[in-house]
Amino acid sequence: MRAVALAAAALYSGSALAATSYSLVKEYSGQDFFNDWVFYNQYDNTTNGDIVYVSQQNATAQKLAYVNDNGAAIIKVDNTSFVPWNQKRDSVRITTADYFELGSVLIMDASHIPYGCGIWPSFWTKGEQWPSGGEIDIVEAINSMTANQYALHSNEGCSASSSATFSGSIGATDCNATSGCLFGETKDNSYGPGFAAAGGGVYATLLDDSGISIWFWSRSDVPSSISSTATTVDISDWGTPSANYTSADCDIAEYFAPQQIVLDITMCGDWAGVASIYESMCPITGATQANASSCYMQDVYNNGNQTALATAYFEINYIKAFNANGTVLSASGSTTSVNPTSVAASASASGSGSSSATSTGTSASSSGAGAVGAVGAVKAWALAAGVGALFAWTLM
Ligand SMILES: *[C@@H]1O[C@H](CO)[C@@H](O)[C@H](O)[C@H]1NC(C)=O
Ligand SMILES: *[C@@H]1O[C@H](CO)[C@@H](O)[C@H](O)[C@H]1NC(C)=O
Ligand SMILES: *[C@@H]1O[C@H](CO)[C@@H](O)[C@H](O)[C@H]1NC(C)=O
Ligand SMILES: *[C@@H]1O[C@H](CO)[C@@H](O)[C@H](O)[C@H]1NC(C)=O
Ligand SMILES: *[C@@H]1O[C@H](CO)[C@@H](O)[C@H](O)[C@H]1NC(C)=O
Ligand SMILES: *[C@@H]1O[C@H](CO)[C@@H](O)[C@H](O)[C@H]1NC(C)=O
Ligand SMILES: *[C@@H]1O[C@H](CO)[C@@H](O)[C@H](O)[C@H]1NC(C)=O
Ligand SMILES: *[C@@H]1O[C@H](CO)[C@@H](O)[C@H](O)[C@H]1NC(C)=O
């Protein structure tokens, strides 16, 4: 573990609220994208999807997680296997070994996000304990939705409010509700074929004790201050966030512990696969009405829905974490200061030479990561799938 205390001292601005500059503490990109993640290696036991999340070795062997010729990370659902009746399809769920504290900005630059009938991807974060450590759903959508939906999940006492300043559309406001507290993206091309056709875009999340805010920019609108090489970010020119959960309505420091980043793609299950929801978005063949196994029968079983499966992949240019204090929290519980220049230098040293640099990040210890990573957050769709979907439906 390399600790660079100097950088942290210089960067600390004295108050998370006053901080406008955040320094790079972790970068996942290029050939080293998959370093420092924990593969779930277990069937989807949190949202009841018809998916087995495989081990890193298996995902690598099957090319479900790899770096493509452009230096981008591909994470996908198996679209070549024949799935016998009552068995599940292979996919990937990965969690960062590191935790990102209040005072962090997380940026994902992607050119493709999974979509299609039966497909349910998510790019999200969670505290070590659920729900007490909180959950932030940054990218989450299902089936034929064309717009992204944001949510927080927390213990009772935290809510979204229409008095915040945001550009999206507000949905359920109680973050303890089974759907979570919701904002819908209203900018064009935040999800689905539109996102891909536009060349993708950037999702940025501010996790701060003053509030949690999320911005989305389609490729042509990404602020110039955000780039694959930036070692600091300044959010002051980012404009109004799409989703804004302020500390006036949710004591962020109370409800949100340091967060791990999670990427997964499930299928069907407690949201995408609910008969009424599935039927409202995807055609039903061979039956007069949708039932609980329609999604499985049409999209997972046998050869699956080849059209949907061919678009069931993330293509990620980079994920970067920035922190006002220049620190990350390792799985073993130690806070480590990181020199942003060494993160970037490490990135370009191991890079493929393309614009999407690679990185190992610098310092975090991943000891104990297995145990921590295995603590799955139970995403609370089970009972309220209808609530989330109703909201989603109004966005379409
Ligand atoms: C990956 O795991 C699946 C079970 O989910 C198994 O059927 C398959 O043989 C494994 N593939 C490899 C290449 O290890
Ligand atoms: C930064 O570090 C200081 C001193 O350790 C701490 O009081 C503060 O909460 C930290 N702020 C953030 C945003 O992490
Ligand atoms: C397969 O998925 C595609 C893309 O999501 C969709 O347009 C099509 O209707 C689906 N077909 C069936 C039979 O579900
Ligand atoms: C969120 O809304 C509050 C209340 O309107 C506002 O003070 C704050 O600046 C907003 N956050 C961002 C990042 O714009
Ligand atoms: C918060 O959620 C839990 C779990 O769903 C539920 O038991 C509890 O009643 C909720 N509290 C409130 C105030 O809604
Ligand atoms: C459920 O619907 C699927 C097609 O959507 C069909 O293949 C299957 O036979 C139906 N099952 C029942 C029990 O009706
Ligand atoms: C499987 O999906 C990939 C994208 O992940 C696509 O390029 C390929 O054509 C698909 N294969 C088949 C047989 O549809
Ligand atoms: C899911 O499986 C993991 C790993 O075995 C376990 O730690 C976790 O408690 C399980 N979650 C649920 C909701 O069963």
TrEMBL record:
<keyword id="KW-0378">Hydrolase</keyword>
<keyword id="KW-0732">Signal</keyword>
<feature type="signal peptide">
    <location>
        <begin position="1"/>
        <end position="18"/>
    </location>
</feature>
<dbReference type="GO" id="GO:0004553">
    <property type="term" value="F:hydrolase activity, hydrolyzing O-glycosyl compounds"/>
</dbReference>
<dbReference type="InterPro" id="IPR013320">
    <property type="entry name" value="ConA-like_dom_sf"/>
</dbReference>
<feature type="domain" description="GH16">
    <location>
        <begin position="15"/>
        <end position="280"/>
    </location>
</feature>
<protein>
    <submittedName>
        <fullName>Glycoside hydrolase family 16 protein</fullName>
    </submittedName>
</protein>
<dbReference type="InterPro" id="IPR050546">
    <property type="entry name" value="Glycosyl_Hydrlase_16"/>
</dbReference>
<dbReference type="GO" id="GO:0009251">
    <property type="term" value="P:glucan catabolic process"/>
</dbReference>
<dbReference type="Pfam" id="PF26113">
    <property type="entry name" value="GH16_XgeA"/>
</dbReference>
<dbReference type="InterPro" id="IPR000757">
    <property type="entry name" value="Beta-glucanase-like"/>
</dbReference>
